[in-house]
Amino acid sequence: MKTFVYIDHFKGEVQPASWEALGVAKSFGSASAVIFGSGLDALTKTAFEFGADEVLLADDSALTDYRAEAFASTLSALASSRTPDLILFPTTARTRELAAMTAIDLNTGVLVDVTALSLEGDKFIATRPIYEGKLLEKTVCSGKPVIATLRARAFPRPAQDASKSGGATKVETKINSLTTVEGYTVAEAVVNLGDAGVIVSGGRGVSNNPSLTPPAGLDEKQAELWRAQQGFKLVGELASVLGGAVGASRAAVDGGYIPYSHQVGQTGKVVTPDLYIACGISGAIQHLVGMRNAKLVVAINKDADAPIFKQARYGVVGDLFAIVPALTEAFKKKLGKQA
Amino acid sequence: MKIIACIKQVPDSEAKVKAENGQVSWGDAPLVINPFDEYAVEGALQQKEASGGTVTALCIGPESAKEALKHALAMGADDAVLVSDPALTSLDTVGAARLLAAAINKIGGADMVVFGRQTLDDGSGITAAQTARVLGWPMLGLAGQIKVADGSASSPQGIQVERVIEEGRQIVSAKLPAVISVVQSIGEPRYPSFMGIRKASKAVIPVWPLSDIGLSAPAPITSRLELVTPPSRNVTCEIITGESPAEIADKLADKILAEKVL
Amino acid sequence: MDFSLSPEHQMTQKMVRDFAQKEIGPVIKEYDRKQEPIPFALKRMGELGILGLCFPVRYGGQGMDYLSLGLACEELEAMDTSLRVAMSVHTGLCSINLFQWGTEEQKQKFLIPLAKGEKIGCGAFTEPGMGSDVAAMRTSAKRDGDFYILNGEKMWISLASKADLVMVTVKTNPSTRKPSDGLSTFIVDLNSPGVTRGDLHGKLGVRAGATGWINFQDVKVPVVNRIGEEGEGFKITMSGFDHGRYTVASGATGIIRASLEASVKYAKTRQTFGKPIAEYQLIQEKIARMSQDYEIARLLYYQVGWLKNLGKRCTRETSYSKKFATEASFGAANEAIQIHGAYGYSDEYDVERYLRNSKGAMIYEGSSEIQTLIQAGYALGERSDKPLRCELPTYDESYWQK
Fold first, then answer.
1. ω before C174 within 30° of 0 (cis)?
2. Element (H, E) at A180
3. Same domain assignment for residues A273 and A304
4. Residues C224 and C266 in one domain
5. Range of the domain at A308
6. B21 min Cα distance to partner chain A (Å)
């Protein structure tokens, strides 16, 4: 079987799940890494290191910024000429669009957010969660190539072999973009919640520390934001000692406590870390659907009937402002990290 | 400005969805407008308020999906169309996109087609992009803000959106007509107004069978072989208690370390 | 006979429920604990048209019927009683009564801003030394040319400190043979000179609601602000109670539902001796009772809404509805706590708030004892409804929606 693996990146920063997809491709046969952009030699080398048999590189300054139409047209043309059996993507906002449009061009189907993929005879059988993960469906695509996007952390990441390298095969681009990227307003630090093994999340509760007195001269809303920032600092410290990422509930994001990119849940990200620590999050269903597949959930909340406890293996009913810093200290000691 | 908001009807988020004999069952849970599509209607109404014009809500589904369209009408949409046909038994996203594109062409004259970012049921989040591709219109995905520019309010030419993506906010522009999908930053969906509720409850929603949009039922390219309810994880929460935060933290840290997840 | 709700009614329920769950749900415990009203609640209810739900569009309302008012109250009180109390006093006691008894000029001047929620209204009848005993009323108004001069104090007035307008009933003639013939009702701007007011604290329940007192000292009220004729005050007040009690009844129905829902949820998850407590018959008995009471309370207030839509007097039916629903809500909340055990006794769960909130409604707007007397009076033929000079306008869709 011949598989294309689309290596998704933003300005050269690769979505690590791209490598997981490369590993899956190798298990079915040959794997061609497909890389679009400009000036991506380092990326080409990394693709070989993760096991790509060849790298198909569309190198064009017009592809510096992702634009759905140009990327889809280039990929469709490439797939039409080289006829892969399977095109794999890591699941990201970009690849959902790209896979969707490519499928229309090639008159085939797309299987999104796949968590297991097997080859039975000449058919790829994909397992994917639907209904917010309440159900799993096994699906087959009768079109060719089969197009699938893979959920981050659902597949093992292949070992990286720094000794490997190779030359990229340049491919033709097809720039027919209907959209223009004007620029970026907020360049937020990239939050890769999908790839995080540990996530410590804060909710509305992080702004409620009664023992803090905000600096004078703040109005009520500013004081709330100030309190929330102090609260998220504690959350961040625990995340950092555990080597994890900071997540947030929708209430915290809506309150302006933390940027949207941290949001876990129905309207944010669906995450599957090994450890999820929810601090001051009550656990509205919209949040739970985003984190319930975490391996181990720990909840810290002052409300004993907060629904989050129903998802948690361990819970602390208490003041997060006391518990979270104490937990940070405890892990520092136990993990042998210096303060 | 003629705006079309594409919506879907789905089981309520609180529904206990199960697999029963290979079919999806949601018990007696209500069917509602897909929550993400409420944002689409909100975004469409905002554009109508900014530039004038009309909002048409469009849905593919069974007769019951009229309820979802009525919700859009109650929020303030001007009219609604349901594409419904007994021949539509299983529809994949590619098929849905082809039907929507045909219906959008039949409605005619649209400047903007607005989608929610994904549906609660299938959750692929790709129908907007596929519809744009079928129409050959620009796709502006995950918009948190929409601005119509270049040209008079009555015949707007261009559109600029702020996309909320993993890496921050990206400003992208395109010519109209365009397909847009919106995220929650567009603004909380408004509640239906009582005036809207009355209008919606009296509305007669046109139903277009496939013959009206000149298509036969698209053969699905992807099909479901099996549906399973994932084994429910039996979590019992162990509440950690102690004399002091330090003692609780110490016990909790030991428990977490013993689970070997770090 | 058709017991089903129209699509309009169902959408109204859902809209009000969504508002309560999205905007009030996340903050109610906090404000109830602080004993402070939710600062944005009244404003939002006004903006969304809930406060003026059942008035014709021409009077600033939303053109819905009287049943919709009850449905909204059920949804609001299923979240918190303080929301429904606003409907009882602003909409029930003040606005509907103005709609029933006010002149066209008064409706133009007062009802429109009230229905739009631009002005908040309340109703004042009870006094520090007087509840249902009209003869003991001390607050008085004396005619002075084109004005009346008001003096006295009203107490246990919901929204006393928040409202812009009050519908107040006072004694204008102390020498009538029947004390009730000496009362008149006025609509008074609470920002008038001579008005002072404040809140009462330490209430058992409705802690996120503002209840207070209003003192009138030589307050000049224009004659044109008199509602109805001089001496009609008692009848007008009793009409107001009919409307207010309807909102109390439908609201209490919401407490029963909330208690039932909380109990079902808890009983299905809480385990003792290895099985969910919902499997124990003693728990089932409590839940069955709540579900039965919910059904009865619902049907009773639906009947009142229906009678109101037809423009029929329904003091008797309102009394059944109010007494049954408020007592059943107290019982349901009480049993909900019992089902929740020690957890229910703490304010970490909502059910203890339901119990505290339910008690007041057995006392205000005509206590359970007064309701019993009303019911006995009708049953024994000692009481009957005589036609009023101004009846509540019959709901007419085409008139309402213009």
1. no
2. strand A179-187
3. yes
4. no
5. 193-334
6. 13
Distance CA C140, CA B20 (A): 71
**Type of residue numbered B13:** S
Q: To which residue do tokens 């554009």 refer?
A: B47
Shortest Cα distance, chain C CAs vs residue B246, angstroms: 24
Across B225-247, average pLDDT: 87
| pLDDT reported for residue B156 | 52
C305 neighbors C65 (Cβ within 8 angstroms) = yes
Provide the token pair at C139: 């607050």
- Token output for C214: 């209003």
pLDDT of residue A339: 44
DSSP string for B97-161: HHHHHHHHHHH---SEEEEES--SSS----HHHHHHHHHT--EEEEEEEEEEESS-SSS--EEEE
C89, pLDDT greater than 50 = yes
Cross-chain Cβ contact C19/B193 below 8 Å: no
The helix/strand/coil state of A195 is: helix
Closest alpha carbon to B258 in A247, A313, A234 = A313
| Residue A133's CATH number | 3.40.50.620
Q: Are A33 and A54 in contact (CB under 8 A)?
A: yes
Q: Are C252 and C78 contacting, i.e. CB atoms less than 8 angstroms apart? A: no
Cross-strand bridge partners of residue C165: C121, C189
Using a CB–CB cutoff of 8 Å, tell me whether B17 touches chain A.
Answer: yes
Chain A residues within 8 A (CB-CB) of chain C?
204, 251, 303-305, 310
In this structure, are residues A63 and A37 in contact, taking their beta carbons and an 8 Å threshold? yes
The C-alpha atoms of residue B251 and residue B255 are separated, in whole angstroms, by 6
**What gap in Å lies between CA C108 and CA C89, rounded to an integer?**
20
The answer on C336 and C200 residing in a single domain is no
What residues contact residue C259 under an 8 Å CB cut-off, 6+ apart? C290, C329, C332, C333, C335, C336, C351, C354
Is residue C126 a contact partner of residue C154, using CB atoms and an 8 Å limit?
Answer: yes
What fold, for B2-213?
A: Rossmann fold (3.40.50)
Mean pLDDT of B209-233: 90
Q: Do C244 and C66 form a contact (C-beta atoms < 8 A)?
A: no
Q: How are beta strands B79-83 and B54-60 bridged, if at all? A: parallel
The closest of B80, B39, B76 to B196, measured between CA atoms, is: B76
Q: What is the pLDDT of residue C201?
A: 87
Q: Does residue A36 register a pLDDT over 60?
A: yes
Rg (CA), chain A: 22
d(CA C319, CA C370) in angstroms, rounded, equals 9
Who wins on pLDDT, B150 or C117?
A: C117
Q: Of the candidates C26, C269, C348, which has its C-beta nearest A304's C-beta?
A: C348
Mutate to test the interface with A, among C32, C345, C348 (most CBs of A within 10 A): C348
Dig out the tokens for B133 from the structure: 């591709």
For residue C125, report the phi and psi dihedrals to the nearest 5 degrees: -130, -50
Q: What is the pLDDT of residues B56-103, one digit of tens each?
A: 999 999 999 999 999 999 999 999 999 999 999 889 999 999 999 999
C365 is catalytic: yes
In this predicted structure, what is the pLDDT of residue C213?
A: 96
Cα dihedral C73→C77→C79→C81 (10° resolution): 130
C99 & C128 share domain: no
Q: Is residue C2 part of a domain?
A: no
Same domain, C278 and C346: yes
> What ipTM score was computed for the predicted complex, to two decimals?
0.90
A284's CB contacts (< 8 A; 6+ apart) are: A249, A250, A251, A265, A307
Asked if residue A240 belongs to a domain, the reply is yes
Percent of chain A with pLDDT over 70: 97
